[in-house]
Structure formats: structure tokens, C-alpha cells
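User: I'm writing a short methods note and want a consistent example. For Carbon monoxide dehydrogenase, I'll paste the sequence; you return only the C-alpha cells, no commentary, since I'll be parsing the reply automatically.
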Amino acid sequence: MGDPPEPVIDLGDAGDPDRTVEAQREIDYEMPADRLDEQQPQCPFGQAGSCCDICYMGPCRVSDDDQYGDDRGVCGATPGTVVSRNLYREIGAGVSSHSHHARESVELLAEIAEEEAGDFEIKDEQKLRSIAEDIGLEADGDVNEVAKAVADAAMDDFGPGGETLNWLERMPDSQREVLDEQGLLPLSSVDQQAARALAQTHKGNDSDTGHILKSALEAGVADGYAGLTMATDLQDVIFGTPSPTDATAHLGVLEEDQVNLAVHGHSPQLSEMVVKAAEELEDEAREVGADGINLVGICCTGNELAERHGIPMAAHSLQSELAVTTGALDAMVVDIQCIWPGISDLIECHHTRLITTVDYVRMEEATHIPFDEETAMEDAKKLVREAIEGYQDRKRRQKYEVNIPDRTQEAMVGFSDSAILGVLESIDPENPAQPIVDAIQAGQLRGIVGIVGCPNPKMREANMTEKLIENLLAADVLPVVTGCIGHIMAQGGYLDPDRVDELAGDGLQELLYTLGDAAGLDGPLPPVLHMGSCVDNSRIGNVIRAISEGSGIPVQDLPVAASAPELIAEKAVSIGTWALALGLPLHTAPALRIEASEVVTETLTEDLKDITGGYLIQDGTPDGAAEQLIDALDERRAPLVDADIEAEAGTAD
Ligand code: BF8
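Assistant:
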């Protein structure tokens, strides 16, 4: 690490003169940004959330604002009904995706406990025991028995279960009490909660805007705990809890003379086994003339592999097609979520082998090789061998020149909640929350913002994420990032400790040096902390919980906020809803699709403050968003600083 990187240029920009992009144009394949242009003007009714297409009397356009439609649908639905119903459906899709993801880890843990999981094992026994304790189970004793009890409790959260989700025990106490008082705790089965989103919003069911929004919030809470937190918890138990490690980012990590194999998606079950298989088959690659196997990660799988193994982070999801256009990628193995269908078209013109592995995720033009936990190593080897054959194809009949961009950037990744709390604990072993509270009261730290989510071609050209984060850093706000934002940050050099002096305000600089020292680094922590994949947003929730419970300050009084500055996915909307339920100010860009309803807009931007403490900020500019987020942090910070001044005055008396 060291030299500042070149100015951030995004390979997804239509105007980018990058050679790889030129290669893409040669084959007359459109870039995401080109396709976005083709879609202009995009439907204003859809963007305002006014379009109701859930029955065949429509589609209707229903809005409080004349420009987006009439004031009633054919069935008499109001703008509030239509907008809240649309939003709830998005959240329902998000909670379905995340809880399904979590469930796979639950099933795997159950198999490990029964010693039926072949090549998988428990890597972090301590974390297993601490989860068991946290959710009220017996944490001592035989490790397989504890694992079985934890897996059973997790599986309960998918079935009829008890009164509420077991995993809600992982929520900060103060906020769980708030939600309980407000009647906002989710159903005891996350599967039911996801199905409820569809049943409740079917034509002719719930039309009460307030009630629909309440259910939507509950679904967000279910996502936060029986989706994100459960997934991260069990993944850490099975694959190990990340700690700070170095990784290299950007498409330049591809190697012309090696077998290049990209794993793309979200599930560590698959990618972790591919790591082992690639190590075992290194000789087979050499036998066909390659210098070795170069395993790289794309999107959240990229984050998962980087944070646990330092494996190169080749691309965020918006750059996944570009990885193929380099002509150097021999196989792309995908599992679940965020896999762009455009890749299918693209591989018709390239030697790259596109392989799907999960039954419910298929792609035209892809080969399907099922990945099964019971035959995991065997399956993973098949995948690696596909890549080795792909390499041979490339060397035999490369139609397009290999064109790997000359761009790489070093990054420090892997700041799991345990790693961060460990650093704080080394400063104050009695109370790890105290160093953060002290830094807030001393004016070193203005607040923390979790910056999460995706790279959206609508916002990429403006470098929305980078500029927002630069504004926050300069104002002594610490950004912690996950998901594809992690890739954007890694590629832009924001995860490089050497850039602290350049990017962070004076107070934050001091804090990062103190923390770096406590972490035993030879310098500061990086200006932006990479906390993992999108399910690892739960790690941000865990740090907030530890600070809140350790300091006795309720979550909604802490100067902490969330932002999805380039939101794309329904999953990101449900994560944002969880943040609102957790009591955080939440910024999104593009704006959530609620403009057509004054009631929904007012509820989420204002009224919610008195219900959960959270509220929505919508701003599509990095300066405006930063200003609003900083104002939100200052509003929460002021009473803490005043309390400190009063305490000091009291001591002086
Ligand atoms: O779950 S950040 S584009 S890869 S949705 Fe998808 Fe968005 Fe990337 Fe990970 Ni998250």
C-alpha cells in the first residue's frame, strides 16, 4: 500500500475509454450504462411507486400528485395503499432472499452437528458458544451438541416456533423494547413473514396504509435477524470469523498465464469449497501449461473470500460482465443473487464457461453443475476442472485478444464486529464501548455511518459513493462499508491506511491512529472499514448493539446512521427497513419509490421518528446527502456531549 491510486474511474461508465470496454464494443455488446440509456426516459409512475399491477383491471396509476396518476385505482385503492403495498412487496422479496440464504447455513450446521457434512467443519467454536449463550441455550458441553441446539433454535425461526424469533435475542435490548412497546416485533416464523408479504398485499386484502407499513417494518426486522444476522453468525461458525487482512482489488487481478476462475454470488458454502478444490488441483492446471489457478471473487462472494482468505476482489456486481470481456476469465461459477442475466449473452462470444450451481438459479447459455453439501468437494473439483478446460480453450482458440486492465489496488479488509470490538477491548478491557463514547464526547468522532449496498449505473457516473464518503471523512465521520460498496472502496484506495491523513478530518485521524496502535498495526486503521458482504450488515448491527449496551445509551440516541447511496436490490430495501426499525436515520439514493403517496412519505421521513426513532432521508447528491447525514448525527451527538460537559462540571464542583 502507499501511493494514492489514480482518480476513481468506473469501468461501468459508458464513456470510459478503458480497453476492456472497447473490447466489449467490438463485439457489439451493450454496457449496463448503454442499456440504461436505452431505457430513457424511465417510467415516472414506477419511480414514484404509483403503478399498481397486482390485478388485471390495471395496471393503474394512483397518486396524490396529478402528474403520477389518479387519486384512486379501479378497485378504489388509495395512493397510500398502492405505494405501501409495493414497498412491502419489495421488502418481502428481500427477506425471502436473505432468510433463504441463512437457512442454507442452518441446514449445513445441523449436518455438521450430526457429522454428516463431509468436508465441512466448525471453524469458530468460541463464536458458536457465544451465540448459544446469547440466545439462551446451554453453551458448554460437547461442541456438536451445542451446534445441534443452535441449529435447532435457528430452524425454529423458520417454522411455527415460539412467541417470537429466537434470533431477536441478537437485537440491542433498548430497541427490542421499543419495538415490543410499539407492537412491531415480527412473526415467530420468518418464512411466514415472507409469505405474509405476498398474502397481505394480494388484491382485496390489506388496504390500510398504516397497517401495511407496520407489517413492512416487521418484515425488515425479521430480515435483520432471521436473515442477515443468522446468516453471518452461522457462516462465521462454519468458515471462521474474519480479521483484518490484505487483499487486492480490481480487474487487474486476473492473470494472463493462469487459470482464472471467478466465483460470483453470495454463498460461502460453495466458494469456500472451491478454495480448497483449487488448491488441490493446482498441479492439474500446471500439467496443461498454466502457471497455476487464480481464484478471484465477484460481488459479495468477493467480500466473503477476501475477508476470510485475502483472495482478490475482482469486481463488484456492475463489473461482472466486464470480467468476461477481458477475455481472460476461464470460468465464472455463480450461486445466488445479483447475477446479471446479461452475462449469458456475453459468453456466447467468449470462451468463458458460465456455470450455475443452485437449482433455483439458472441462466440461459450456462452449464448447470449442481453443488451439493454432501458431495461438496467432488462438485467443487468439477467446477475447478471446468475452469482448467476453459483455460485450454482460451489458449487454443482465443477469438478476442486477452485484455486485462492494468488496474489493481491494495486494500485492508475483514473488519468483522469481533475484530473491531477486539481493538476497542484492548483499549478498555472493562468496557469496549467506552473508547467510542469518549471519542464522540471529545469531538474526535462525529458519528458512524454504515454505507451499504450496490453499485447503481444511475449513480456510478457521478461517483456518488466516493464523494459521499469523502464528505463524511472530512467531517470526522467514520464510514463502515459492506457489499459492493466494499469493492468500490477497495478499488478507489479508501481501504488503504496510508490515506488516512489525506482523507480524514483531524479528529478522525487521531482516532484511527489510536485504534491502529491498539490493533498492533504499524500505523492507523484505514479511513473506511470494510465489514464484509451484504449479510454482514449484521456486523454493523452487532457493533451498534455492543456500543449501546456497553454505554447504556439507547440505539436511537447514538450518532449512528445508515446509507445506501446506490441502492439497486429489493434486498437493499429490506436491509434499509431493518435500519429504520433499529432506530437509525437512513439515507437512500435513488429515492425509495414512495413519492406518489404523501402519507407514506410523511410516515417514513417524519412520523417514524416517534415510533422507532429511525427516519428516511432521500437525496441523490453526495453533498446534500452528506449534509443531511451529518446533521442527523449532530442532532444525536449534542446531548451526549452536553452530558459529558455537565458530568465534568459536576466533578469539578
Ligand atoms: O448483496 S451490494 S449488487 S452483490 S445487493 Fe448485490 Fe447490491 Fe452487490 Fe451482495 Ni448486496
